[in-house]
Amino acid sequence: MGSERVLTDRFKALVSHYLFEACFARPGEGHDKGSVESRGKGLRLAEISASLLGSVESSWRRKGLSKWEEELQGMLELPQFAFDPRLPEVVRVSRQAMVQVGKSTYSVPSRWKNLQITAQIGVEEITFQCRDEEFRCARIRRGKREIRYSHYFDELSRKPQAVRQVAPELLAELGEPYQKLWKMLDSRYGALETARLFAKLLGAVIDQGHEDVAAALEEAFLAGRFNLLALQLPVEPVTNEIPEGLREHEIESARAADFDALLDGAVS
């Protein structure tokens, strides 16, 4: 009963995926709708879902399984893949490596800047996808910003002053042992020099990975010492082997006077 319902595109996709007809019931008038919405604002959707599923399960067990088994005989088999309820949306990454989803702003890896990416928008989580990479984060309230400084390690590794400016937020995101390291360096060298050292450390994180650098720091602390050089992990040696066809040729090194002659037009 009631007015005709207009399905959203995502709900239409759900109906198409599982091949059922949407039928909405309205057993009573919603005089308490406002109070329900008011109470709902203070609850987590996951808690509401768990409570509802628990109530359905309890009612189902009380009435027995015979009705369900009877209905099951007339049901279609489930599709091979479950339906993904998330809403896909193509978004543009700004030069600052940020995207707008609804009225909220999220940072993404800086290497994605100026690209178009896909946002898979769920109820509590968003998954950002770019080529074969993805990044997940919790959804935030309208008008809020979610900035992760790990997305800007490449830029911060070249800008110690920026590291100093965002140090509280950066350290809160990195956690230990980086927080302990900052305190040790700051007490010995001061904030400015500490920021310079930390910028180099972020460069090591980019090259060697967060886990390897953190493990190297932990080992240094356990040994009662700290040395930035200890963070340098073994790397494959670079070979400068000369191709066989060029081994018999001798190349003379250039001299500054040779370039002077070129500039004077002495050599064509």
Question: What would you say this structure looks like, in words?
Answer:
With 268 residues, the chain is α+β, with helices and mostly antiparallel strands. 42% of the residues lie in helices and 13% in strands. It has eleven helices and seven strands. It has helices spanning 9-18, 33-40, 45-63, 66-72, 153-156, 160-165, 167-174, 178-189, 191-208, 210-222, 256-263, and strands at residues 87-92, 98-101, 104-107, 116-121, 125-130, 133-138, 145-146. The strands form two sheets. It has a four-stranded antiparallel sheet, with no helix packed on it. A hairpin with a 3-residue loop joins β4 and β5. α8 runs antiparallel to α9 (191-208) and α9 (191-208) crosses α10 (210-222). The termini are far apart.
Largest sheet, if any? 4 strands, antiparallel
Strand residue content: 5-15%
Would you identify the regions where 5 or more consecutive residues have pLDDT less than 50? Answer: 232-238
Q: What is the helical fraction, as a range of percent?
A: 40-55%
Distance between the termini: 93 Å
Give me the strand/helix succession.
HHHHEEEEEEEHHHHHHH
Backbone structural class = alpha+beta
User: How many β-strands, per DSSP?
Assistant: 7
- Helix count equals 11
Looking across the biggest beta sheet, what order are the strands in?
1-4-5-6
Query: Overall 3D geometry?
Result: elongated
Mean pLDDT: 79
Radius of gyration: 30 Å
